[in-house]
Specification:
Catalytic activity: myo-inositol(out) + H(+)(out) = myo-inositol(in) + H(+)(in)
Membrane topology: Multi-pass membrane protein
Pfam families: Sugar_tr
Radius of gyration: 23 Å
Family: Belongs to the major facilitator superfamily. Sugar transporter (TC 2.A.1.1) family.
Shape: globular
Oligomer: single chain
Largest sheet: none
Strand content: under 5%
GO molecular function, one term: myo-inositol:proton symporter activity
Helix content: over 70%
CATH topology: Growth Hormone, Chain: A
Number of domains: 1
Order of helices and strands: HHHHHHHHHHHHHHHHHHH
């Protein structure tokens, strides 16, 4: 039985899912060195996690942007439909590019897909900052969505394929921590520009600053290798050995361990290719891409892994967390908070702090247990929030709106609903804390579920499920 750190997405010591999904195990023949990951691993992880920072920044910055735009776009106040389109188009284009990026990652490598996402991030940020119409803003957000779709798929995969098994969960969670850090940074910048700058230009700086981390990562990619698993897969075993030597922090003379890791990857590839050839009558019919689909959908263990990964990714969005991130400033404005962007910052900070806890716990107690412990608290938080909203006396539909299009709550309504607003804020923080511990992290470890020959395809489909649910929720939240 594998150690808890090597267990797949939903398993722990007593679970049998790993044996059922991967009967041959993964890296079981290699004695990995004791101790923490090498400095090189940490540097690669932190460099890759800039993609997560960009992902989180985009999620968080739109909240403050929507309440700061005023009449800057198309010379009118944004309607609820405008806000929904500006928000949801990101998820739509992330949905489109996510499965495409899985194919690109298999053919060209993980690293080029990260570079592609950075270029799209820069272009999208510039387009948003220069937009003068709603349609222009939607176009810029769509480009950023394509970047997010590629980055959200390939970055966890890149980290997982570089990480030693004992620390894979922690290192992949570093990417999620970067997402939450990006949200915190976005809320801080949103608060500063919305409070202390000209509203007509402040929001342009908010969205435009997203180009800077992407440009930095483009430079860092010059010094980052591709993953050993992809290098071995395309016949570059010598390059893979060099990467493993650096990632393990081994002495160059310690060839036995390096050779064992490479041989383990090669053996896994041969077994998977042999199984796929048998499934396709000796490999004579169809092309490689179609064979990958056949292997993913027709092999029971792969199909079950796909169902689990897609289910978790769908739940991550259908629970409504990103709607809270997108529209938190709008929600807190409606609840009567005087500085809604600052109130939103407390929610983002809660998410960040509890993601740090998840980083420390996930390899110790396992993926499945951390989900089982955190989900009930998410339910409690949502129920308390619903109770609080039932006590709120919102103004009628003909009430005047502020510059961001949100209704201005009257003093009487604010006083009568103040206690309910506090209940809602506390319950939201409970919900966010529980989300950060479990459902915010575990689905992104989806690559652990799939064997190498269908890993990119399976992870891409699961990520597409995430973005499909994100698009549906983002489009319908405000109109509902």
């Amino acid at each position: 039985m594998a150690s808890p750190a090597e267990a797949p997405l939903l398993s722990h010591q007593e679970d049998e899912l790993e044996d059922e999904l991967h009967p041959d195990g993964e890296n079981t023949t290699v004695e990995w060195p004791a101790g923490r990951p090498s400095i090189f691993i940490w540097l690669l992880t932190l460099s890759a996690c800039i993609s997560g920072l960009l992902f989180g920044y985009d999620t968080g910055v739109i909240s403050a942007t929507l309440v700061s735009i005023g009449t800057s776009l198309s010379e009118r106040v944004l309607t609820s439909l405008d806000k929904s389109l500006i928000t949801s188009c990101t998820a739509l284009f992330a949905l489109v590019l996510s499965p495409i990026s899985s194919v690109l990652a298999d053919y060209f490598g993980r690293k080029p897909v990260i570079l592609l996402s950075d270029l799209l991030f820069v272009f999208g940020a510039v387009v948003q900052a220069m937009s003068t119409t709603v349609s222009g803003m939607v176009f810029g957000r769509s480009i950023v969505g394509a970047a997010v779709g590629a980055a959200s798929f390939v970055t966890p995969l890149y980290i997982a394929e570089l990480a030693p098994p004992a620390y894979r969960g922690m290192l992949v969670t570093m990417n999620v921590l970067s997402i939450t850090a990006g949200q915190v940074v976005a809320y801080v910048i949103g608060w500063i520009f919305s409070e202390y700058s000209d509203p007509s230009t402040g929001w342009r700086w908010m969205v435009g600053l997203g180009a800077l981390p992407a440009a930095l990562q483009c430079l860092l990619l010059l010094f980052m290798p591709d993953t050993p698993r992809w290098l071995v897969k395309v016949g570059k075993s010598a390059d893979a050995r060099l990467v493993i030597e650096k990632t393990l922090g081994c002495d160059p003379s310690s060839r036995r361990l390096i050779d064992s890791v490479v041989k383990d990857i090669e053996m896994e590839l041969r077994e998977e290719q042999g199984n796929m050839a048998l499934a396709n009558n000796g490999g004579k019919n169809g092309n490689t891409w179609l064979k990958g689909w056949n292997e993913l959908l027709n092999v029971p263990k792969n199909r079950r892994a796909l169902v689990i990964a897609c289910l978790l990714q769908g739940l991550q969005q259908l629970c409504g967390f990103n709607s809270l991130m997108y529209f938190s400033a709008t929600i807190f404005t409606m609840l009567g908070f005087s500085v809604p962007t600052l109130t939103s910052l407390t929610v983002a900070a809660t998410n960040f702090v509890f993601t740090v806890f998840a980083l420390l716990l996930i390899d110790r107690i396992g993926r499945r247990r951390i989900l089982l412990y955190s989900l009930p608290f998410m339910v409690i938080g949502l129920l308390l929030s619903a109770f609080g909203f039932s006590l709120i006396k919102l103004p009628p539909d003909d009430t005047t709106t502020d510059g961001g299009g949100a209704p201005v709550v009257t003093d009487a309504a604010s006083i009568s609903s103040r206690g309910a607003a506090v209940i809602i804020l506390v319950s939201i923080m409970m919900y966010v804390a529980a989300y950060a511990l479990g459902l915010g992290n575990v689905p992104w470890m989806q690559s652990e579920l799939f064997p190498l020959n269908v890993r990119s395809l399976g992870s891409g489909l699961a990520t597409s499920t995430n973005w499909l649910a994100n698009f549906i929720v983002g489009l319908t939240f405000l109109p509902l």
